[in-house]
Amino acid sequence: MEILRYDRGTHPKERKYDMKHWNERGTGLLLCLCIAIPCWMLGRALPVIGGPVFAILAGMAIALLVRDKGRAQAGIAYTSKTILQYAVILLGFGLNLSEVAKVGVQSLPIILSTITTSLVVSFLLHRLLHIPSNISTLVGVGSSVCGGSAIAATAPVIGADDEEIAQSISVIFLFNVAAALLFPTLGGLLGLGNEGFGLFAGTAVNDTSSVTAAAAAWDGMHPGANTLDTATIVKLTRTLAIIPITLALALRRTARARRAGGAGEGSFSLRRVFPFFLLFFMLASLITTGASLAGVDAAAFAPFKELSKFFIIMAMAAIGLNTDLIKLVRTGGRPILMGLCCWAAITAVSLGMQYALVKKTRTRMASGARIQRCSSHSFFRARSTKQMSRTTQSPTMASHTPMAPRPKWRPSR
User: Fold this and answer.
1) pTM for this one?
2) Any idea what DSSP says for residue 46?
């Protein structure tokens, strides 16, 4: 019987190991699952707020009532770290690189400008206001890339704790809601077109759910606009920035640890902090791209995207459970100010870059039309000169052209 059990992959030692881990993590996993299900439903009913925000608020409320989590703590920690990485991997199934290449490349100058602006602003405020490094990084990356998903990908790389993650998510959420509510009206006041607002929403709004809400509100105000597709593809293009940013942060953390001689880190190496889950994220996006090029319907990957969103909600519930709400309120002023500055700077740069690109395109078109008019005028001028030369040359040409002799005049009799 023991051999049969071993062949089936259920050796007693392995079974005991699995049961031990389930006993350690099961209670916390079930607790996060029970919080995530109603929050997921609320998020679908109110997409402007989103399920992750409901989950983190519910977790913080429960943490106020239950201080000692006991057996649930290991499962909560596992959900806030590992399940969060699984969510980022599954997020790759919603990223079609061929669509990004078609539409997103046009928005690349604006995307790079807004990302750079947010990171520079967060770094400067980190130095000026003495905001903790991890919170500054998470707020800067979350504001510039894609909100909660970027924070989820960056937090394990920089070693952020749950309170830092919760504070960053709260800041991002605040300005996500403000953008979703204000940007459609702002776009109308500024006279943006449908494509212009799609580009603005995709580059200036942080979280995907808020981008969707803002674009949907614009489409409701302008029937037939179809801005949602443009905004979503631009947003997915921004999502790709997660990869180089997290890799750069991992290399930076490794270099710092090596300069410090690995103090407090033991035998520190790049392998310990390298975000290997991002490789699986890229693999998932490549699978989606290859399948779409082979003719597979995008709806086939919809369950993976929904599961990714649900895992993020579970992870946010776990982060909320590990967060001290009272401490968060006391220390939240400076991170909120940082989020406000990043949000305002990104908005200004997105609109400014779009205006500059449109002006440059119009100048090119005007110069091209002027050249075409000049060339057409020179063409007509050449034709008229040619005709005039023919007219002026006709008597001379007639003198050289042999003509039939005129008949002699004879008087009539």
Assistant:
1) 0.64
2) -
